[in-house]
Amino acid sequence: MSKRVEVAAGVIFGGDGRFLLGQRAPDTFYAGYWEFPGGKVEPGESPADALVRELDEELGIRVRVLRPWITREHLYEHAHVRLHFFEVADWEGELRDHVHSALSWEPVDAPEVGPMLPANGPILKALRLPRWMGITHATDIGVARQLELLDAALASGLRLVQVREPGMGASDLCAFAAAVVKRARPRGALVVVNGNAELAAEVGADGVHLSAAQLAGLEARPALEWVGASCHTRAELERAAGFGLDYAVLGAVLPTATHPGQPTLGWERFAELVGGLPMPVLALGGLRRADMERARAAGAHGIAAIRASWDQS
């Protein structure tokens, strides 16, 4: 096997939410293909330091804030690469490209340029995963109230909903999940159903969210577009990655009203557990919208929450 090459890559966002891609020059491997800016990690460099240097050399920009995101490996004909992706949260300077044939700002939902480097397909899908997951609790507050709060949250920008109602009967759950999908679809929001791939398919949801116990017994990835899982340990996170799941939810990070007295991870341990994973991870447990920046600085893709998702105060 060829020697593994460490590469740092940056997801650079513009003010309108688009991200930057560069087209590889004619004298390079995969000439004409599009990629995320970045380059090789030199001996003695950290991936973060390498990316700061590369973006200065390639694009003439100075990075102010980097957020660790995901790490993926890919075996090309000419090299085995490990790509350390970071979100470039803040930068300064005027873009002046020195290595690419062209640059293009692309929308997250539907990039228009191509072809992309083969390693980047899962990255584009991961970028489509919204940053906040609202988890339902209609069994606690009533179906009518939950749907009312869902409508308000969707109108305010919620784009990822997990239907999680462990105490609800089968027929009621089917009706409730269908109602959630009906409301989410016009807003372009994704819906995953907790623990039941068959129900998810029946109501037209986008995917299924597996419990840690279901993940432990999993033999094959469910045949749905979006599949995620609840995790509590590094071993569970790596198992989710091994099945090619699209995301994981890890917690509890902070104390929660749902599970009082449960041990918590804290942000330092959370960052340790998610480092180097190939899929995005949402932080769960006692978190509010004000925690988003702290979560992403620790390597979280975003936040999953029950009460904070529906709090209208």
Automatic annotation (TrEMBL):
InterPro entries in UniProt: Aldolase_TIM, MutT-like, Nudix_hydrolase, NUDIX_hydrolase-like_dom_sf, NUDIX_hydrolase_CS, NUDIX_hydrolase_dom, ThiamineP_synth_sf, ThiamineP_synth_TenI
Species, as recorded: Aromatoleum evansii
This enzyme's EC code(s): 3.6.1.55
CDD domains in the cross-refs: NUDIX_MutT_NudA_like, TMP_TenI
Organism superkingdom: Bacteria
Keyword list, A-Z: DNA damage, DNA repair, DNA replication, Hydrolase, Magnesium, Metal-binding, Mutator protein
Nudix hydrolase domain boundaries: 2-131
NCBIfam families: PRK08999.1 (NF006530)
Record's protein name: 8-oxo-dGTP diphosphatase
Cofactor(s) required for function per UniProt: Mg(2+)
The reaction(s) this protein catalyses: 8-oxo-dGTP + H2O = 8-oxo-dGMP + diphosphate + H(+); 8-oxo-GTP + H2O = 8-oxo-GMP + diphosphate + H(+)
EC class (word): hydrolase
One Gene Ontology molecular-function label: hydrolase activity
Family: Belongs to the Nudix hydrolase family.
